[in-house]
Amino acid sequence: MDQLMIVIDGQQMSVGELDEAARSLRRELLELPVHDVVDVPAGAAPAGARVIDAAVIGAVLVLVNSSVALLASLVTAVRAWRRNTIPDSTIRLRFGDDEIELSGVSDDVQARLLDDWARRHGR
Predict the structure, then answer these.
(1) pLDDT tens for residues 83-92?
(2) What residues make up the domain containing 70?
């Protein structure tokens, strides 16, 4: 089983807002055909993440069997969620050692980069 880590850059958000944003994203992703969406354990915290107790605040770990179609639908869901929920934020997607950032670039450029990224990791 593969793991996709999604981290919300919540520097402008309170801990409570960041936690609620991650919970909202988790609910959205559980609508997709993934195995599970879980909290990121503190030991796996990416640089710059906020850690409280045993979990990383503002990050989720998506457990998937990677395919191009599933990763593409995950990326589409995350982009839409970001646009509708916290459009000024930055979100990082990490699959293995490969990380890509969703931030203030145009939708067309972002879509092309994310499609290429999903194709690299899908089977």
Answers:
(1) 898 888 888 9
(2) 2-121
33, 98, 40: which is closest to 65 by C-alpha? 33
Give the E-state strand segments of the chain in sequence order. Answer: 2-9, 36-41, 50-52, 55-64, 90-95, 98-102
Report which of 10, 4, 116, 119 is spatially closest to residue 60, judged by C-alpha positions: 4
- 3-state SS of 71-93 is HHHHHHHHHHHHHHHCCCCEEEE
Q: What is the mean pLDDT of the chain?
A: 81
Please report where in the chains the tokens 């999604």 appear, as a residue. 6
Does the pLDDT value for residue 76 go beyond 50?
Answer: yes
CATH code for position 25: 3.30.70
DSSP β-ladder status, 55-64 and 50-52: antiparallel
Model pTM? 0.82
Number of domains in the chain: 1
